[in-house]
Structures
1.
Amino acid sequence: MSRNAIELWVGLFVVAGLAALAMLALRVGNLSTVNVTDAYKVTASFQNVGGLNIKAPVTMAGVKIGRVSNIQIDREDYSAIVELSIDRRYNNIPTDTSAAVLTSGLLGAQYVGLEPGGEDAHLKQGDRIEITQSAVVLEQLIGQMLFSKAQGDQ
Amino acid sequence: MTSIRLLGRWVINSVLRFGRATMFLMATLVGVFLILRRFRLIVQQVFAVGVLTVLIIVVSGLFVGMVLGLQGYNTLVDFGAESSLGLVVALSLTRELGPVLTALLFAGRAGSALTAEIGLMKATSQLAGMEMMAVDPIERVMAPRFLAGFIAMPLLAAMFTAIGVLGGYLIGVGMLSVDSGVYWTSMQEGVDVYDDIFNGVIKSVVFGFVVTWIAVFEGYDAAPTSEGVSRATTRTVVIASLAVLGLDFILTSLMFSEV
Amino acid sequence: MSQVDTAHDSLIEIRDVGFSFGDRKIYDRLEMTIPRGKVTAIMGPSGCGKSTLLNFIGGRLKPDNGDIRVNDISVPSLTRRDLYALRKQMGMMFQNSALLTDLNVFENVAFPIREHTELPDELVKNLVLSKLQMVGLRGARHLMPAELSGGMTRRVALARAIALDPMLVMYDEPFTGLDPISLGVIVKLIREVNDALHMTSVVVTHDVAEGCSIADYVYLLGQGSVIGQGTPEEMSGTKSPEVRQFMGGLPDGPVAYHYPARDYKEDLFQDWPDD
């Protein structure tokens, strides 16, 4: 095969490989949907986050508006501090919005749902969501049910 | 007694081999820097190592993706979770099957060809001839081949994964009842560019490095006879495949284990 | 380079060289002087380490002790860089020719020129064609090595060995496995190339007739050192039994017909297993 043909094939090969990489990043991955750099961060503290993971989605009215960027323990009151990265497009969330750790489906993955309040002021970078509702832990729920049933029997 | 002695001999030989392979790698890496200005040589080897491997990679990727689509659907549909088919196919391919299967196929197709070619050059004293013409065979022969394998492998793995995702789409959306939009969005929801795709690419880069290193070294170290060359070729495929699987385990536990 | 230096009429001096492969002793106190501008044949039975000697001169192997001087440069003590510089002045023709199988005849001969010089394509072409013309294969320049006959392969290898006009050309078994015509061509070429380009040639061979027909001087190796030397005429007239056995091709003599073994009768009545 001539030198030019080889060079042409190698050029096509590299282009095809890079195109495949681009497709993976844009079409398969989430590079096109959520731009992590263009987000602002707010925190919320929960008594219990259950099985919430970093990178879990943050939704409002069922629409994904961001993701969980960090989870850690408050050193003073031992609650969980969850850091939420919210897309800059949604910069008009009232300050009295409440956050809850919810589960998609009966046993599905957990996510943070935001319920908007009525204040005129909006959440900014570094703000804290005051009203939170912890995750429902299945074992606790069952324990409570058994307990109340036992009490009812007496 | 003899079996213990044989074990000892095996250990000593393995250590010696590994030492030779490491020194060979150092010399080759120096050669890679020297050869960079001779772009043509590298292009030629990318053709031999990469372009000629595309066909088997594309065909295998398509079939693996189609099987994943079929198996994934049959399992997921029992839980009413067939909407996650895209996610299942894409995660299996980007994290594991893409890099690993590409590396295994690469070892079988390109790696064995490299070993055989270099081994034959040694057996017909072409390498010695180069040395006597004051041309360093490590720089002139090994370095461009090594670099080409290193370049080609990640590109091949990306092709494999991309084609595999399309294969899953073909089955899931085309034959079965998954919605096209759901296939792609479930994928985009769950596949992270850094955690999954980037780590998969890192894997393929590591595999490309190791497989090419083994292939080129085995050729260079082969006994200069036809029997020696055929043994070296077999050894390339066996050692490279084992190395890929072992390294995959190590890399996976480093990358994806949640601390 | 082409001028013969009268002050140093030897190109290669091998002094007190000893070498062994593992336990097998190849050389013991080997002494040899190869004259400049001449064709020297190094002969000896197969497996006596004749090719090893060429590897010493080319610096691909180092002797255990002793010194090898080429053009008054000590080869074993050279750095890699200086060794490669010296090798540019050496050409070597391997027994199996060692042509690069993925390049055609023209590119094979051009290979050392392209690797070591930045000459423009036009000049490279002229140089290569002149070498190919010399070996009579200018018309075969587009053929691949696999398409050549044994004799043609050797001629291409010869053209490649002299591509950079070296001061020294080494031939490793140039006569083995050739038909009579090709053999005649190679014998003629080695002589012609040596005289026309004012080179020094070292021919390693076990073919007595061809070796003697082209050599100005002959060394005969055996048991790790030189067992006879001289012009071809002196060699054929020698009294030494070792030399006579080799030159005459006698099956028995100082080199015994039998591989060393125990007494035959004793061996026959020995119980199995052996030893």
2.
Amino acid sequence: MTDDAVTENETVLSVRGLSVRFLMPGGRRIAAVTDAHFDVAAGECLALIGESGCGKSVLASALLGLLPANARTAGEARLGDLDLLAADERTLARTVRGRLIGLVPQSPAAHLTPVRTVRSHLRETVAALTGTRGRAALRAAVEAAAARAAFPADHLDRHPHQLSGGLAQRAATALALVGDAPLLLADEPTTGLDRDLVDHTVDELRRHVDTGRRSLLVITHDLAAAERIADRVAVMYAGRIVELADAKAFFGTPGPRHPYSRGLLQALPDRAFAPIPGMPPELGSLPEGCAFAPRCDRATDACTALPPLADGIACHHPRLPEDLRA
Amino acid sequence: MLELRDITAGYDPAAPVVRHATLALAPGESVGLLGPSGCGKSTLARVAALLHRPDAGTVTLDGTPVRGWRHRAPHAQRTAIGVVFQQPRLSADPRLRLSDLIAEPLRATRRRDEIPERLAELTPAVGLTPDLLDRRPHEVSDGQLQRACLARALVLRPRWLVCDEMTAMLDASTTAALVAAVEDYRAATGAGLLAVGHDHVLLHRWCARTLHWSDLITTQDPEPVWLPAEVGLQ
Amino acid sequence: MTCEPVTTAEPAWRSHGTERRSTRAVRVRVCVVLVAATVLAVLLVPPLVRLDQQAVDLSAKLLPPSWSHPFGTDDLGRDLLLRCVYGLRVSLLVGVAAALTATVIGTAVGATAGALGGWADRALMRVVDTFSSVPHLLMGIFIVAVFRPGVWPVIVSVALTHWLSTARIVRAEVLSLRARPYIDAAVSGGASRWRVTVRHLLPAVLPQAALAAVLMVPHAMWHESALSFLGLGLPTHLASLGNLIQAARGPLLAGQWWPTLFPGLFIIVPTLAVAGLAGAWRERINPRRRSELML
């Protein structure tokens, strides 16, 4: 592995005003993602966190061009010179998926074809993405690809069901790394895994970012995993990014500034273990103004107007450092 | 008392997933059972909920030995235990509205007249709103559906609750809300709890006592070396 | 790829993916029209059109399609359009009645076997295997031979030989559903075996069974014609589609195609339309498909 350290962190993915609407029968529109702005730089990991159903998986699907036919998008998502939202299916299939974005799937065991070995999965992907030809060259390339994700070579001839959860995750990561894509996209990579395995998976993903050339976008509701892996955190609520913060400050001191992010952290069993009252609003009928106001203890009349995302926070009454000292 | 003694269980008698596990819960006690995924703890939870007949071993529920599982278990025993599973999508009949889902055990035990009262109590208790009750499972989120599944488990006022990875698919806030709902119910009724999971931070916070899977195994080896002598004595 | 402008002004909305929905909607509409036409023809033509389908006119034998006889005439000079409509009536009656009976038997047996499991399952499936080991037609002939020729023996014969596959499908579906946690939850909530079967298992397999029933209709219609061919089915004066095609074999060899083609189309087109509708209906009724919105 070459290690030409990139000193200035160039932006890999730049999302500007990304919105996704689903058109439902009866003229209903579901605002799954609204006006998302964020960047991910090389060598950086951004964790997109939020409750299930807040629109974060839809955002991932939009980046990969995997939205269903009743979806409409607006805004842009630039990966290099390419706008992912404007690209046609042919471009997405030939140059984006695998080559520009490597996807680390939610449940690796289900992502792999049960009747084929890991080697055969890797061989197919290597041949398709790198154009390697010839038996010996392919064999070497497959083993190199496996080694990059620390997948043991003597397990290459196993079928997915013969792998432990951790090895299946590594196999899936190896596949995602084959195309040497500048952006890795991990969609809930730790759902249902044991805590030890979560730590392990997350550390391995982190390792691929620490080479400095790749960037990683992790979509997760697992706050502990996000704390372990992320440089920056984007908190999503009801389809909008409400806070964008440095991970150290967010999880440590001074802590999150948005009342929703604070509530989310305080719900953790090693913190207050107190739920946020109420439930998230329906994406089909969002309230006017701040969508969190009905559940927020700091809400005032000002919250009937939509707070813009400024200085990494979309809130009329953010927590200030002096609040924390009190 | 909910007592499982020397349970061996699985889906293939030649290769049981649970071997010689023993676990006892005092009335009203909350026990968290930790273990890696695939270790057999879900199977043991199903045995405890009288949903899976063990190959060997005994289960005693409030002093009465359990003689049948699933439909062979008497109504009174089966309904004394409420269960919540990991995946709300698979735990809800996709055809039922949430109100019918929650009320189903009352209908099955011919206590229809209690439905309005129990629905009115449980809906706020698990954090649902009345407008959600008319929806079908595909029209609500995972978190909302799991709240409904918890309400269904509580509707018959069970003396025991078995929660198998109840919050593994859910976010932190919904997890805290569901755990709070379970604890409110236990505080009001004195019900016991067996919570199975792999998140030790969560189970330590939630349960009075936590056990690791390896603590349950009475004998590591199915054929202990001293067994011949023991048999000879009998 | 893209189509239909979105009516909101603010951002420029883009659509993605191919609009499969619209082609499906067109397909469904075509099927609805065809099925409606079939039903109307079968119900309305006999009472409204006061022509005798049996009217023999030996001076108009085997006329090719023309304005006065759109489908031509048969070897006795009878109008084939009229014969086809009457034939469709009889064939549909036999096909639908046999398919419904077979589905009811198959669903009952399959659901019972799947829901009870154990020795009941094994015993019922051995019965299914035994029935399957005898060729359909042979058993059909046996059953028909017991009765006097007529419509009902044919229905009974076809039904009793066609419930086996439905029983297998329903049993397999019930077995897979029985392992779902929601069945566990129902058992834990005190539901009896009967209640689990009727409230949770049967409603889930009914779309499958209904689809099997619809797809069985053409099969049953063909089976009827096979029995008729052997002289054991419907009386020859009854214009079933099977009888019509069978009677057309002679003219076909002489190059007269219309007595074969039009009854054939009368079997194929309505049954394909019904099968198309059944498929669309199943997609609609299955809630799992509708949750694929990732919300």
